[in-house]
Write a structure and sequence with these properties.
alpha+beta; four-stranded antiparallel sheet; 21 helices; 4 domains; single chain; 624 residues; Chitinase A, domain 3
């Protein structure tokens, strides 16, 4: 228990921020939920701040993908209901907007330098343990961000994290709270059990019982709602043979490729911040004093560890790692690119304060040969043509399907084949396009299923588009008694077996409680299974039994146990005999600190939830 508390109470702010980045990376191809959306119609306003329809659509799509990734085939298609998704996504956007407004009202802020450090130290943006500008650009491009958009998103997320940290860190716990929690957590219990096994094979359900159950649960015995669909499938790969690339185009692309290569510079720095407590003149005086130390021969890395106010890089001797142009503050970057290797700059003023910068190393770009890149460049150039051909064809498919009364016309116009699926229910098929939730949702939509229309174009993935049409609707029908009698008979036998086991157990409990049954080493031919000093997380004990044992009242005196029963998942019934409750040893000072941190964190999270509710209650929220 204590180890769980320890693990769950450390580094959560950093994990939240990095977790955000990881989630966004998993959702490649989508821009930030909160990007500007031009002149879109509003979805809501929060204290006058707009949430656009584009914001909402983006959030819905991201939620859809997250649910599909997390739950896969077990995902309940009912959860993909567009209305439910939109409601959940809009609530999330409103909550976020409220928290950002709360952070701004409370004057929370996050410096550009701190954002730089988060970006530079994020593992997903590093190669060989060092920040890599090319990797950073590649990752944020996949997410649909420019550098400015990514920084803006990250700034908002870290502002919210500050609010959460401030409230979570303010949780207060008394010594009495800690002692009470520790006493319960360290308590153990002595108990014994007798188990009455449920035996469905020993039970029989009559035909009359089966019929009565069938009549009472008739709505449960229906055939599944199924549809057979026709569909046409457009694949991007089909257009590669239609694209051609000349040698001249490849050569031009090669020149562009190598022109984008840039050197990387490994910088170290010492920072003296300018802030509300330290004026510009004071900071400049401090950095000049540090520069004098360096001029006398003091080691730069040692001085950085002692004097730099950039805590992230100070512990590494000021080393910021390799980065290209466009990462640092303009004044910082200009000074860095004016240095020779090993040289230290004069004091440099940036928006964060005063720096001394040392150039640790320079990595010249490696220029590959045209031959080594020819296949890659050919694919890229072809891809540009293929992308346009595919987009045009997908648009033509959608337009043609909208106008046509079936799929034969759009298939003929695009040289595609009309295919037919196996019958599928609302939970979809096992493989192929019928396993795609968007396809299933379209197939069972009123427009396709009831009105007989072709669906809109559905993007299965970035390389595949389909249009579907209902060929046959197999509506639910009442299953006959004969078809379901065997499953009903098994269910009734299971229920009877569970009831029989419980009846035996309850009889034993009643007899032991009133003294009519003597407590013995075995009951009904079964020996009591004794467990001594069981903890709340005891291994080898069914969780239901353990939960029941820790809910039972303490015996009034020694030799007078208390009794209770609990039904297990398989229908078996366990009679539990609580013999004693053992108070655990007093917690050590270290354990008390861990309990205190855990309880304070939990209280703080409750305070944060209450704060969010308060913001919502006081806000003017208009949903459209």
């Amino acid at each position: 228990m204590l180890q769980n508390i320890r693990d769950n109470s450390q580094g959560w702010i950093a994990k939240t921020i990095i977790g955000l980045i990881v989630v966004l990376m998993a959702l490649t191809g989508f821009e930030a939920i909160f990007r500007a959306a031009g002149h879109s119609q509003d979805a809501a306003k929060v204290n006058g701040d707009e949430i656009t329809q584009a914001d909402l659509s983006q959030a819905v799509e991201m939620q859809r993908r997250q649910l599909m990734q997390k739950l896969g085939r077990d995902f309940d298609p009912a959860l993909l209901d567009e209305k439910l998704l939109r409601e959940a996504a809009l609530k999330g956007l409103i909550d976020r907007k409220l928290l950002l407004q709360g952070a701004q009202d409370a004057k929370f802020s996050f410096s550009e330098g701190a954002l730089d450090q988060v970006i530079l130290q994020t593992p997903q943006f590093q190669a060989d343990g060092k920040f890599n500008a090319d990797l950073f650009d590649q990752q944020i491009r996949q997410m649909g961000f420019t550098r400015l958009q990514f920084r803006d998103m990250l700034r908002q997320e870290m502002l919210i994290a500050q609010v959460r940290a401030g409230l979570a860190g303010s949780g207060f716990v008394t010594d009495a709270d800690v002692d009470a929690y520790a006493r319960l957590d360290k308590q153990t219990r002595d108990f014994a059990t007798v188990t009455y096994k449920a035996d469905p094979a020993a039970q029989r359900a009559s035909d009359d019982e089966v019929k009565a159950y069938y009549d009472a649960h008739a709505k449960e015995f229906m055939s599944p709602d199924q549809v057979v669909i026709d569909y046409v499938e457009l694949k991007k790969s089909a257009f590669f043979d239609k694209a051609t690339v000349s040698d001249n185009a490849i050569a031009e692309q090669y020149q562009k490729e190598i022109a984008n290569l840039a050197e990387q510079r490994d910088a170290a720095h010492i920072l003296v911040e300018v802030n509300d407590k330290v004026s510009d003149a004071e900071a400049k005086g401090k950095i000049e004093a540090i520069a004098a130390r360096l001029a006398k021969g003091d080691d730069f890395a040692t001085v950085a560890r002692e004097a730099s106010q950039d805590s992230g890089s100070a512990q590494r001797g000021g080393d910021l790692g390799y980065a290209g142009k466009g990462v640092y503050d303009p004044a910082f970057e200009e000074a860095l690119y004016g240095l020779k290797q090993g040289e230290v700059s004069q004091p440099v003023r940036s928006q964060f304060g005063w720096h001394l910068i040392k150039l640790l190393g320079v990595q010249a770009p490696k220029v590959p040969t045209l031959a080594s890149l020819k296949d890659k460049l050919t694919r890229e150039l072809k891809s540009q043509q293929v992308e346009q051909l595919y987009v045009d064809a997908a648009k033509k498919l959608e337009d043609s399907a909208f106008e046509a009364s079936d799929l034969s016309q759009p298939a003929q116009e695009l040289g595609l084949k009309v295919q037919t699926s196996q019958p599928i229910g609302r939970d979809g098929g096992a493989e192929g396009i019928t396993a795609n939730r968007q396809v299933v949702q379209a197939a069972f939509s009123p427009e396709v299923l009831d009105e007989g229309a072709n669906s809109n174009a559905i993007e299965l993935d970035p390389d595949t588009t389909v249009v579907v049409r209902a060929k046959e609707h197999r509506k639910p029908e009442q299953l006959s008694l004969q078809a379901v009698s065997e499953p009903i008979r098994k269910e009734l036998a299971r229920e009877k077996a569970a009831d029989a086991a419980k009846a035996k157990g309850d009889t034993l409990i009643a007899g032991l409680r009133d003294g009519k049954t003597a407590l013995a080493a075995s009951q009904d031919g079964q020996a009591w299974k004794v467990v001594e000093a069981a903890s709340r997380g005891q291994d080898g004990v069914d969780p239901k039994v353990l939960q029941q044992v820790f809910q039972m009242p303490k015996p009034s005196e020694k030799g007078k146990p208390t009794y209770a029963g609990v039904t297990l998942n398989d229908g078996s019934y366990v009679v539990a005999r609580l013999n004693g409750v053992n108070e655990g040893p007093a917690p050590s000072a270290e354990e008390k600190d861990e309990y205190r941190q855990f309880l304070a964190s939990r209280h703080g999270q409750q305070d944060f939830a209450a704060y969010r509710k308060q913001l919502e209650a006081q806000a003017k929220i208009d949903r459209y």
